Amino acid sequence: MPVSHQAFFHAATSTVSYLVWDEATREAAIIDPVLDYDPRSATISTASADEILSAVRDRNLTLRYLLETHAHADHLSASHYLRGLTGAPVVIGEMITEVQSHFGALFEAEDVIPDGSAFDRLVADGETLALGQSTIGVMHTPGHTAACVTYLIGDGAYVGDTLFMPDYGTARTDFPGGDAATLYASIRKILNLPAHTRIFVGHDYLPEGRSTYAWETSVAQQRAENLHVHDGVSADAFVALREARDATLAPPVLILPSLQINIRAGALPPPTDKGGVFLSLPVTAPAGMA
Fold first, then answer.
1. Which of 122, 147, 243, 285 could potentially form a cystine with 289 if both were Cys, beta carbons 3.0 to 4.6 Å apart?
2. Burial 210-236 (b: 16+ CB within 10 A, else e)
């Protein structure tokens, strides 16, 4: 049966979230929902997530899943918030345990157990989830992070940060667990899907010469036009290009708050004995200052 979707662009983080549903049964999934976060005041709000939830209600859909493509480093996930309102389970790739292990230790987050239990379901490469009369296929596509997955729904591939629009290229690979050669192999898996497969990206950053945001492309277009990884680009050439580009990139603005929230499936750290909720700020300082 046909599958439809609606995209929601979060301008503050250039993130695209998706509401996907099976037309026959009205069962739906939300992919990569975003919390609004003001880094100056450390204030979280939910307007963007509420907009998606309003669309679920307006379209008379039943929310079955909250799908995370990976633990994002550039925005805070709204999955825990939406789970609390709807009861829908939060789903992520099974390699999230590696990400939790690294960043749980970095932030000294004793409540984070690196077994994926903060999430409701861990999925593996080749696994499928039922969405009404349709299915959600899971493709493990690491490289940006160890836990990245692509969701295959209908004729669409929801690739998270693995690929961007052809005129922007591909994801960075310099985060812990990232690897350029691994990303190349993952992208080739995606680009070996049928040429007509629609690709829906997780971000759009406007490159020079384009003024309109976009998030849909195709396997055929990516193979022909992607700046970094079009057909004919070898693994060695891609790795050299990707690693050189990564060396010039600053960390994402929200990397520290995002990862602390996202390894908890979008939940806040537990409150202190006095009731306050705090995020950690690991500091790199010259020797002797600590």
1. 285
2. eeeebbebbbebbbeebebbeeeeeee
